[in-house]
Amino acid sequence: MKNIAIIGAGMTGLSLAYNLKEHNISIFDKSWRPGGRVSTRKHGNTYFDHGAHYLSINHHVKQLRDILNKLNIVKEKEIIFSTDFLKNEIIKKKVLIGNNGMTSIPKKIFEDLNINGYFNSQIIKIIKKDNKYSLFSNDEEFNNFDFVLISIPYIQAKELSQEFIEFNKEHEPKYDPIYTVMFSYNKSNNINLDGGLNLHKDISFFMKQNFKFPNLNEECWVVNLTSEYTENNLNIDKEQLEEKVIKIFENSFEISQRPIFRNSHRWLYAQTKITYNSISKKNWIGSKDSRIFLSGDWVTGRSLSDAWYSGEKLSYYIKLLSI
């Protein structure tokens, strides 16, 4: 049995932990919870899936599908979805959502793993001592690891591991940043859509939260700005951003009431634009001694299933190292 540190408790980190669970696993994350960009926000009595919105019912990762079924942590929903709002294209779409918000998916997987979890612990340094690795946060030291697996956004992973890995500048994945705006109304607006694409030239996605959280008393929405708009307005005033989105939304659906709550969040590494695999034909990045590895959704794709699959692929390789 080896001591393995996993930095990042998103879906890739959880996949690594699941596939290497016969070893002594310790997982670290700067957040207070597992999940990464799979995130559910609570504000008073309202809930918003403001990170990943749903899981495709046709996703290709069998292992993830089996785990979700075994743990009974997702439910299938048929929603009314506009594939292009500006062109009035509407379909019925089946999706998978968490039983208690999307955060409930990584939360339940982590709990089922029964591994060491260190949250609110941002690892800022790695050093090698006598063929073992030590990790350092701002106020703690964690020692005696045989492997260190880093599954955080590529830019942060590169900075953390550059002492041990020679990176190829031509093989750097790229991300799209996205602003997310959350708001709620006291009364129903009788909008006959659960979500959609292309609400406006600056708004790529919108989704109602009430079909996910049927006990909500307010009508709640999550809206994503386009990556182009976000990239060009990374430092926009928060209130200005929220007011812009709400005005567009209300004009689009001819809404006369004003929201009773609004908030926003900037995801700098929201989704992968150019994957590492597409430019390098590789599925992970490793150190010369094959003891530090980098992986994440930036390897194979932007979806939750892609993130899990990246961890699955790296896990199988580590097992081939006869650990």
Describe the protein's architecture and organization:
With 323 residues, the protein is α/β, with parallel strands linked by helices. It has a single domain (3-320), classed as FAD/NAD(P)-binding domain. Helices cover 26% and strands 36% of the residues. The chain contains 9 helices and 19 strands. It has helices spanning 11-19, 62-71, 104-113, 154-161, 227-232, 238-253, 276-280, 297-300, 304-320; strands spanning 3-7, 24-29, 40-43, 46-49, 55-56, 74-84, 89-98, 116-119, 125-129, 132-136, 141-145, 147-150, 174-185, 195-200, 203-208, 219-225, 261-274, 285-286, 292-294. The strands form 4 sheets. It has an 8-stranded mixed β-sheet. A 6-stranded mixed β-sheet has the order 8-2-1-12-19-18, with helices on both faces. The longest helix is centred in the last third of the chain and has 17 residues, at 304-320. The radius of gyration is 21 Å and the shape is elongated. The N and C termini lie close together (8 Å). 41% of the residues are buried. The model has no long low-confidence stretch (mean pLDDT 96).
